[in-house]
Amino acid sequence: MRRLQAALTVRDKYQGEQLQGQSAAYEAQKRKVLDNLVSSLDKRFADIDKGLLSCTRIANLQSWPPTFEDAPDFGNDMLAQVVDHFNNHLQQSVDLAVMDAEWTSLKHDLYEKYVHHYEQIEIDSKW
């Protein structure tokens, strides 16, 4: 994806090959490729903020509240949704009775070790 971005926005090269064309037609085609790519990604991940996919936010420490005390219940609803969805599989190998306590302990440990020290990753805003 980044190679495509670089090819279409900066160097006009892709895998070492110079991309060529009539300037206006080339730019129009480049824009069409990018628009179609964005549209396809939007369709593919349209439900990223709904349902089970929204629970993946729990793995992104940048989305966590600044401190454990700010939101001691953070992630509880997401964990419950994941457990509900995979309940049949989890019952075979996981002690669901201790899951809430384990989640709280893990969350506390992650806050102590990582969340307070997490550095923001600079995202290239050229896109």
Structure report:
It is a single chain. The chain is built from six helices and two strands; from the N terminus they run αββααααα. It has 127 residues and is mainly α. The C terminus is likely disordered.
The SSE order reads HEEHHHHH
Overall shape: elongated
What is the percent of helical residues? Answer: 40-55%
Q: How can the largest sheet be summarized?
A: 2 strands, antiparallel
According to DSSP, the number of beta strands is: 2
The count of domains is: 2
Give me the Rg, rounded: 22 Å
In the sheet with the most strands, the strands line up as 1-2
Mean pLDDT: 79
> Distance between the terminal alpha carbons, to the nearest Å?
11 Å
Structural class from helices and strands? Answer: mainly alpha
Unreliable parts: 119-127
Sheet-strand content, in percent, reads under 5%
Put simply, the count of helices is 6
List the helices and strands and how they pair.
Elements: H1 2-11, E1 13-14, E2 17-18, H2 23-44, H3 51-54, H4 76-85, H5 87-90, H6 99-113
Antiparallel strand pairs: 1-2
Concise description?
The protein contains six helices and two strands.
Question: Which features would summarize this protein structure in a list?
Answer:
about 130 residues, mainly alpha, 2 domains, 6 helices, elongated, disordered C terminus
